[in-house]
Specification:
Elements lengths: L2 H14 L3 E8 L3 H11 L4 H9 L4 H20 L10 E10 L3 E6 L5 E6 L2 E9 L5
Antiparallel strand pairs: 1-5, 2-5, 3-4
Helix pairs in contact: 3-4
Length: 134
């Protein structure tokens, strides 16, 4: 490996050290319903995001709350020496992508059949430290 490539790889590794992520694959709810909840916590601090998810009545918020706790625990495993309260972690990125679809048939009038699409989604949550000090 060349010197320039080694230096850029070290810089990328150092930048990723403050990030932690968690993924939820094949969650059996539609991506649209999950995005409604994900938009509420995007860019929020982890304390505020956990409070929003805990008191939200939507089913998707329970799954996102569990995913956020998993990302926090991943961050703690990566940065054992740092304190969680001093880190100022925020939900840097939350992405909801469509997953696989189960296709089913439902009987319809006059001998026809309508297709039912049971959607699923993939959620990727990235935590990062808030570098802006107020």
């Amino acid at each position: 490996m060349g010197n320039r490539k080694r230096q850029s790889a070290a810089a990328i590794k150092e930048a990723k050290k403050s990030l932690a992520f968690a993924k939820l694959n094949n969650c059996p709810s539609s991506p649209r319903k999950m995005r409604l909840v994900a938009d509420q916590v995007r860019g929020e601090s982890i304390d505020k995001a956990l409070a929003i998810l805990k008191f939200s009545p939507k089913e998707a918020s329970r799954k996102l709350e569990k995913l956020l706790l998993s990302a926090i625990s991943n961050w703690q495993a990566k940065n054992e020496s740092e304190d969680l309260e001093k880190a100022n972690l925020v939900v840097k990125e939350i992405r909801v992508d469509g997953g696989s679809m189960l296709k089913r048939l439902r009987p319809a009038p006059q001998g026809r059949a309508h297709r039912i699409r049971k959607r699923s989604n993939h959620v990727t949550l990235v935590l990062g430290s808030n570098t802006i000090e107020a």
